[in-house]
Design goal:
It contains 28 helices and 24 strands. The longest helix is centred in the first third of the chain and has 22 residues. It binds glutamine (GLN) and zinc ion. The site of zinc ion has 5 residues, from loops. Catalyzes the transfer of a methyl group from 5-methyltetrahydrofolate to homocysteine resulting in methionine formation. Keywords: Amino-acid biosynthesis, Metal-binding, Methionine biosynthesis, Methyltransferase, Transferase, Zinc. It comes from Orbilia blumenaviensis.
């Protein structure tokens, strides 16, 4: 028979219980015991959900109090000395690595002050993992408490024999890095690490784990030869343990065809898992490459998105595999862990039933794998009802008016090359802009938001709940705008902003004003640690029924003689920070967003706003995982959608863009091709040398590298900012340099913001005198 399996389940709980318990523990409001208890309750609940759904192979050790990669750092005793020296408890050490720890000395304990380990994006998802940070003389030792064994036993005691999940040794090392001042190449540590895996796997087998899921997602990347070879070294050992468990090696987020020569070295393993949602095309090649007795786990239920699986398509893929391998050698699975999907659709009480019928969250996806497996094993009749309902949902979605808007399609079809380009090249534009804007040298500005005070949040909540009227709320927002304008004028900034007090979130705010989007109330997904995000969902063709930001910007401009900067979130960021559609290519969705934003940009200009910033902080993370065609295509459509959204204005209107990022070495062409008149980027925490790329490539337009870190409450001094600008002038011409902070100021207090910006303006004035 064909079995069903889930590669991992979201940990937070239906009501983000884990987030709440963890943050309450951090705040000293609840005990460690109560946090541990919450973890245990959630694990039990999640196993039960999967069992009740009929899933055959249920994962364990997919739970984590912070991050699964961080758990492995601790599991292998690969914790840098700066954390171990304080004799913290294991859980305290885990959190110290995840988020840093600052604690005053007490009578019995010494003071602790340690920053966190680096946090990086997990492949191309919005999840972040903690990066293994390794030493030249790194040693590994299995921790005393073996979490995967503990959690396996915990499930077993509940009557559920699970398949433990561990991150494989090649991925663990490849995703790691040498600690600061160290020079080790992580993969060279493989021989030292393998004995720990042998011990771990043996212990799992002793505990009764028949199979273990060993994740090697790096197999979807372009790998150095040495790393590819490491698979043979690792799995010839781990697959041949005398008393070891059967291993299913799991890959996800892409195809592994380009690394197909690695597959023979893992062919003797019990099974291989591949992601057929992301890369269905790899199936034939994989079928030809799997070992003679090997089981193939086919990921046909999307672990990264919220759409109902199209059963008939999924069944077809599974049956193709069954034809070659036989039913006993095929497992129906989620494409990846369900970590990236929300807990359950059942919590959504406010969704329009029409669209709710198109969705499937983690709990529903667990049912899907079971149904597909049953359909293949017992035949369609066994699940006739489910198949019929699924087909009806799929048809309803494909033919819905919400998904198909003929006007939007017609407009897309009519786009011409000219729509992507500004009327004139930069030199002519900047000449026209100097006339309209009349700015001094070293113009100063901010990135958009000002402190989102508790008062702002209180009023927004009242408005959302209906406790105050729209007019009252609008009056409040206007008053906020008045205040930030007065402050900016007093400080002496040159290009002002309205401060974004009306925005709950930089994507949701726009989504709520566009056709084609829907919103959830509970669909949270973990971003890192206890932080969760609730991405809006793009369900259909996108259009803008009415202006979205013109009212606030126009009001703000009416209150000052200085130029007011309009503030929009760019098409790629709107797309990346939403759940996208899976029925049309992302480039199509970005283009629709771009057209909607283009109208907004033009309307802002008509309303007298002659500086418009289109933020694209997410443009870099959309960069495809592998070099080659997909990347080239991405660069093209990402750049085109930005240009399409901004090119509708006259030469005298200045287009700004902002990126929360400073290292452009590998994507300079993307940045440059956007053709934005002014770019503001993060730079204060990085080496000013990173700006050399702008000099080297003779970047012709204006740039404002952030002069101070807005993530910290620290107030930068006048001298400090002056020195920073001095460093920047090594790489940038005085006439192209803008002076601004690293990013928006919404998380800061006014007591920090005012003096910091005053120092910034004074530093700019110093250079105005000098040049
Ligand atoms: N304009 C936004 C702000 O100032 C930009 C935020 C971002 O780049 N993440 O908050
Ligand atoms: Zn930013």
């Amino acid at each position: 028979m064909v079995q069903s399996s889930v590669l991992g389940f979201p940990r937070m709980g239906a009501n983000r219980e884990l987030k709440k318990a963890t943050e309450s523990y951090w705040a000293g409001k609840s005990s460690v015991e109560s946090l541990l208890e919450t973890g245990k309750t959630l694990r039990a609940a999640h196993w039960k959900i999967q069992k009740d759904a009929g899933v055959d192979v249920i994962p364990s050790n997919d739970f984590s109090f912070y991050d699964q990669v961080l758990d492995h750092i601790q599991l292998f005793n690969a914790v840098p000395e700066r954390y171990t020296k304080y004799n913290l408890s294991a859980l305290e050490t885990l959190f110290a690595m995840g988020r840093g720890l600052q604690r005053k000395a007490t009578d019995t304990t010494e003071a602790v002050d340690v920053t966190s380990l680096e946090m990086v994006k997990w492949f191309d998802s919005n999840y972040h993992y903690v990066r293994p940070t390794l030493q030249d003389d790194q040693t590994f030792k299995l921790s005393e408490v073996v979490k995967p064994v503990e959690e396996f036993n915990e499930a077993k005691a509940l009557g559920i024999v699970t398949r433990p999940v561990v991150l494989g040794p090649v991925s663990f090392l490849h995703l790691g890095k040498a600690d600061r001042d160290q020079s080790v190449t992580p993969i060279d540590l493989l021989e030292k690490l393998l004995p720990v895996y042998e011990e771990l796997l043996t212990k799992l087998a002793e505990a009764g784990a028949e199979t273990v899921q060993i994740d090697e997602p790096v197999l979807v990347l372009d790998l150095p030869e040495k790393t590819k070879k490491a698979f043979a070294t690792a799995y010839s050992k781990l697959g041949a343990l005398a008393n070891g468990p059967k291993l299913v090696l799991a890959t996800y987020f892409g195809d592994i065809v380009h690394n197909i020569d690695v597959v023979p070295s893992i062919n003797h393993l019990y099974g291989l898992h591949v992601d057929l949602v992301r890369a269905p095309g790899q199936l034939q090649e994989i079928l030809g490459a799997v070992g003679e007795k090997q089981v193939l786990s086919v990921g046909v239920v999307d672990g990264r998105n919220i759409w109902k699986t199209n059963f008939s398509k999924a069944i077809e893929l599974v049956e193709t595999a069954v034809k070659t391998l036989g039913a006993d050698r095929v497992i129906v699975a989620t494409s990846s862990s369900l970590l990236h999907t929300p807990h359950t659709l059942a919590s959504e009480k406010k969704l329009d039933p029409e669209v709710a019928d198109w969705f499937s969250f983690a709990t529903e996806k667990a049912k899907e794998v079971a149904i597909i497996a049953k359909a293949v094993t017992e035949g369609a009749e066994a699940v006739a009802e489910e198949l019929k309902a699924n087909a009806a949902s799929v048809t309803a979605r494909a033919t819905s008016k919400r998904t198909n808007d003929a006007d939007v399609k017609a407009r897309q079809a009519a786009i011409t090359e000219a729509d992507y380009n500004r009327k004139s090249p930069f030199p002519e534009r900047i000449a026209a802009q100097s006339k309209t804007l009349n700015l001094p040298k070293f113009p100063t500005t901010t990135i958009g938001s000002f402190p989102q005070t508790s008062e702002i949040r209180i009023q927004r909540n009242k408005f959302t709940k209906g406790d105050i009227t729209a007019e009252e709320y609008e009056k409040f927002i206007e008053k906020e705008i008045d205040d930030v304008i007065a402050i900016q004028e007093e400080i002496g900034l040159d290009v002002l902003v309205h401060g974004e007090p009306e925005r709950n979130d930089m994507v949701q705010y726009f989504g709520e004003r566009l056709n084609g989007y829907v919103f959830t109330t509970h669909a949270w997904v973990q971003s890192y640690g206890s932080r969760c995000v609730r991405p809006p969902i793009i369900v259909g063709d996108i259009s803008r029924p009415a202006p979205m930001t013109v009212k606030e910007s126009k009001y703000a401009q009416s209150k000052t003689k200085k130029p007011m900067k309009g503030m929009l979130t760019g098409p790629v960021t709107c797309l990346r920070w939403s759940f996208p559609r899976d029925d049309v290519h992302q480039s199509v969705q970005a283009e629709q967003l771009a057209l909607a934003l283009r109208d907004e940009v033009v309307d802002l200009e008509k309303a007298g706003i002659y500086v418009i910033q289109v933020d694209e902080p997410a443009i870099r993370e959309g960069f495809p995982l592998r070099d080659g065609k997909e990347r080239d295509e991405y660069l093209k459509w990402a750049v085109n959608s930005f240009k399409l959204s901004t090119a509708g204005v006259e030469d005298g209107t200045q287009i700004h863009s902002h990126f929360c990022y400073s290292d452009f070495q590998d994507m300079f062409s993307l940045i440059s091709d956007l053709d934005a008149d002014v770019l503001s980027i993060e730079n204060s925490k990085s080496d000013a040398k990173l700006l050399n790329v702008f000099k080297k490539e003779e970047y012709p337009r204006h740039i404002g590298p952030g002069v101070y870190d807005i993530h910290s409450p620290r107030i930068p001094s006048y001298e400090e900012i002056k020195n920073r600008i001095e460093e920047m002038l090594v790489y940038l011409k005085p006439e192209q340099l803008w002076i601004d902070p690293d990013c928006g100021l919404k998380t800061r207090q006014w007591t920090e913001t005012k003096p910091a910006l005053t120092n910034l303006v004074n530093a700019a004035k110093f250079f105005r005198e000098k040049y």
